[in-house]
Task: inverse folding
């Protein structure tokens, strides 16, 4: 049986690589004891702002066996999205993860393929695929699986590839060989804390979500509070500042996923183009993009906030 466990583990990691994942780590599906008090404290301090959904399914967020019956293993996967080119310098900025096709679709397809490859090879394996659309603590599991450590900006970091990647999971009812966590390599560096335009990183490893530019430009449905005027550094959808300044991202290499390539018009658009964007152009440029989450009206609100 132990031989099988190792064989299955190797098979899953090889398949993940074939499907284009950057890396794959595996943890035992069990209650996340260390994260429980941290998550509770973060919610109690209201650091999730209007993101009320963060309060739901508290137990499920910490225990994968409540999401998938009889689950034994949690397979964490990273998919690179670092672009080879970035936007025009004179433009309102878009988080790099939103340049191409919405990652939910891209990753879901890859995960389905991975799960069916596992079932074809091993037989009856039950499981579910997750791409940050369910109550799973992605970063905590990826760190537990040895794929990196959680940096002071609260993103997962790896020495080889920095932090510009998506995290996804398969939770399955199959016992496998488990990986061990890696060590923290942030050291005394405070680049992300010093650079955050809205001072959202309140202390090392703690981000007040309700002060984050990504929260204001994507999640918040009301008007952006006026005290943040002039502090957005031209970010109109999401924000990459804490990742851009991180020394580990010197090692980011461009992705090779054609679906993550931006619409040809996107990179050349100037501030003026963004200010005059029509709903038709918005639909064309962001046809399958994550930017649709904020809707045309939301993007207009963000641009207006930056402009005045």
Result:
């Amino acid at each position: 049986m132990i031989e099988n466990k190792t064989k299955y583990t190797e098979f899953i990691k090889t398949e993940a690589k074939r499907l284009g994942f950057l890396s794959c780590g595996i943890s035992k599906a069990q209650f996340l004891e260390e994260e429980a008090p941290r998550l509770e404290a973060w919610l109690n301090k209201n650091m999730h702002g209007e993101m009320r959904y963060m309060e739901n399914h508290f137990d499920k967020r910490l225990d994968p066996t409540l999401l998938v019956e009889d689950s034994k293993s949690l397979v964490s996967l990273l998919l690179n999205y670092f672009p080879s080119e970035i936007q025009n310098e004179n433009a309102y900025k878009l988080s790099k993860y939103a340049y191409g096709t919405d990652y939910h679709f891209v990753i879901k397809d890859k995960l389905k393929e991975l799960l069916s490859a596992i079932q074809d090879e091993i037989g009856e394996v039950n499981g579910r695929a997750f791409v940050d659309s369910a109550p799973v603590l992605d970063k905590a599991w990826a760190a537990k699986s040895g794929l990196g450590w959680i940096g002071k900006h609260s993103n997962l970091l790896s020495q080889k590839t920095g932090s510009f990647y998506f995290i996804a999971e398969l939770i399955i009812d199959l016992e496998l060989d488990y990986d061990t966590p890696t060590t923290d390599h942030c050291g005394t560096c405070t680049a992300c804390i010093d650079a955050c335009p809205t001072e959202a990183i309140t202390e090392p490893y703690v981000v007040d979500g309700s002060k984050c530019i990504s929260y204001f430009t994507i999640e918040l449905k009301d008007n952006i509070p006026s005290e943040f005027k002039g502090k957005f550094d031209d970010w109109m959808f999401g924000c990459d500042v804490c990742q851009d300044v991180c020394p580990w991202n010197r090692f980011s290499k461009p992705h090779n996923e054609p679906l993550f390539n931006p619409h040809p018009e996107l990179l050349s658009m100037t501030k003026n183009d963004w200010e005059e964007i029509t709903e038709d152009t918005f639909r064309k440029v962001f046809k399958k993009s994550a930017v649709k989450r904020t809707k045309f009206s939301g993007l207009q609100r963000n641009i207006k906030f930056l402009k005045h």
Remarks:
- The beta strands are 23-28, 73-80, 93-94, 127-130, 149-150, 156-157, 165-172, 201-203, 206-207, 235-237.
- The chain has a mean pLDDT of 94.
- The chain has two domains: 2-87+95-172, 191-252+263-307.
